[in-house]
Amino acid sequence: MGEVYRALDTKLEREVALKILPPAFASDAERMARFEREAKVLASLNHPNIAHIYGVEERALVMELVEGETLRGPLPLETALDYARQIADALEAAHEKGIIHRDLKPANIKVTPQGVIKVLDFGLAAVGARSTANTGDLQNSPTLTISPTQAGLILGTAAYMSPEQARGKAVDQRSDVWAFGCVVFEMLTGRPVFSGETVSDILAGVLAREPKFDAVPANVRRLVQRCLEKDPKQRLRAIGDWRLLVDEPAPTALTAPDRRRLFWPSAAAVLLLATLALAYVAYHHITEEQRVLRLSILPPEKVTADMEAVSPDGRRIVFVGALEGQSALWVRDLDSTSSRKLEGTDDSTYPFWSPDSRSIAFYQGGKLKRVDAAGGPTLTLCEAANGRSGTWSQNGVILFSPSVGTGLYRVPAAGGQATPVTEPDRASGENAHRMPWFLPDGHRFLYTARNVEIENTAIYLADLNSKERRKILASSYDAMYAPPGFLLFLRGSTLMVQPFDASSAQSKGEPVPVAEQIRLDSLNLVGRFSVSRTGVLAYTSGFAIRGFNGAFGSGALVGNVQLTWYDRSGKIVGTIGEPGIIDRPSISPDGRTVAFDRVGPNGKYDIWLYDQARGTESRFTFSSAQNEYPTWSPDGTRIVYNSVRAGLPSALFQKALTGSSEGELWEQSVNARPEDWSRDGRYIIARVLDPKTSLDIWVLPQFGDRKPFSLLRTQFNEQFARLSPNGRWIAYQSDETRRDEVYVQAFPNLGGKWQVSTNGGSRPAWSRDGKELFFIDPGREMMKVSVEGGDRFQAGVPRVLFPTKLSPVGLKWFDVGNDGRFIVPNQVEDTVSAPINIVINWPASLKK
Fold first, then answer.
1. pTM of this prediction?
2. Catalytic amino acids?
3. Which of 299, 557, 600, 620 could form an S-S bond across to 305 if both were Cys, CB 3.0 to 4.6 Å?
């Protein structure tokens, strides 16, 4: 059919398989038409066990590059059945779309290093070359074809053809079932069902000879026999029924090592595995007693877990896990003792599942994306500058919150233009709509209407086909619906459940508790619980340690933080105040006071001041709003900060140290946050969240008409801007290379551009004399660059100063004093994830 190359997609910076057709192929109009049909066939098959197609070029297919080995036997029974399940899932997904593979064979099946099956070459049998050469490996010989305009069409590979295929008759999904039986036979025995010296010999065996099943394990023999019935009427009709023909073996010791599951190193691990297996089986084979099973799972060693979500079918958990400073999505099967990282999901947040439990949507780099739960390439669906939460309907619609301070938007699950669905009622104090959850009909949904006054936050019911909405209940946190008719919501830290009729959207009876001490993300008003449609509940207990910076930024496991002084050698030389949920320290111009953000008992950030001479700290802001990001005026008499007020998603306010009144600086309804204040007092630098262009850097002049103007406004995220002491240069962080790096440009009239960091960098800060620039690298090390910042900017080579104890996925905020010391928000100790609690068949607990 042509040649396959390993190629690099230079636009998306990923390796691909490039399938190039021969010139003779392109001159055959019939073949080209079939080739285009293949592209459409592949594009319609979005499944984790089917190799993806990315696009079509002239005479070429751009496809997923599948690493790994071609399927070979013999394999241990457990491994063979695992692979059989994945192959059957792929075929079932194709058959549901009316697509028949027609050339299933081990040569078209790959096993990735992670043990994931990838079925290749869907549709190739219908497009292949007209060759019937009988050379080489006859069992995996080239696909045999005859023009589809001729009678007696033969499509397939000899050793795996069904009898009806070999006779050139019409085929249906039962031909794939036959090939599936051949593949399973070969996985178990290490040899093909049919062999011979020539293709004709092999086909004769397919048509006339009965296979010998002696070498097939007894508990799988019925399956293989039913798949290899020569009469298609007697054959297994639907590939999804294959499990019904497998006799579950009695528990025995493993006879061979499995590349995906190693022997458990301890009795405790064996006990855990048994518990998980028992829970899993009990869930899928509920007895009349309707038993409730409870267990706990831990993330991998040294991985900090957050934002877990259970799949709709109740078989898997996805969570955001941080390992060695890098966060990503991890998936844990409930019948497994290990979790696996999904490649390509670094710095992801707020994962949620597709209704078929095969895909996961998430936010990354200002975009909403999706990925197969089994792994594979990520697909960008739409822009989402600062996305929060989402839900995916059975009708192929995703409902999500694209940014802070917005309503809900919808986008097709295949990607496209996002369009608004709801709008916050700002007159009543609503400032955001979050945490949507589709009801079973796929068009009505629940969501949380955030209000400036937390006590007015409530759960509403709305409809994609209507502008009307109805208040369901008052709750500061999110709510979820679970079949056959329950509404789950939080009352304090207790998870409540109330009977709820989804058809009429009416509550019945009184709510009762189902779990206690649910961990709360008090800054985002999200409870750490999740529920499947099959009776599986997942939740995390304990005090919330997850903090957000109000209207901006990624989530941060800030935990128990201690503001800590470092000297240039990395030696700790002092601390400030009491530990707590603390971030964003800012040193006053005279060095006497440190302003910082601290979360109080109300779950909101307020600005506090630490007097270094007296060794005391005091609260600076007292409004009911969230107040954060303190930035000093150059004379040290005022602080400008970010605050969320009614009608303003996020605005700039200022307050004098000697007075109690505060004033608004920016009289626009924009999401603005202060970043710096020039030494001459003329400019305040702010970061603005623009849903159209993501994060931008703006300037608020303190002279003339004081009209703000944009300084850096691109499709990328520019933020954390800091001015040099002489006011001529601005350093900032940007993700324009798909990785955060530190850059410098001239100010206020942009000119020149220098990339200061070389291997990732964030949160730049100038030394007080302007001769050095500091930033944090991806490994949480403090970096320094010597600079010349006079008339001409020059930067040296970045050097490591010292490692920090910043949070692995935190905001990495720090400041530098006049004396060259660094103030850093250190984790008091490494954050240890609490276990994820699992309750299987939780509705049965309500009967007690």
1. 0.51
2. 103
3. 299
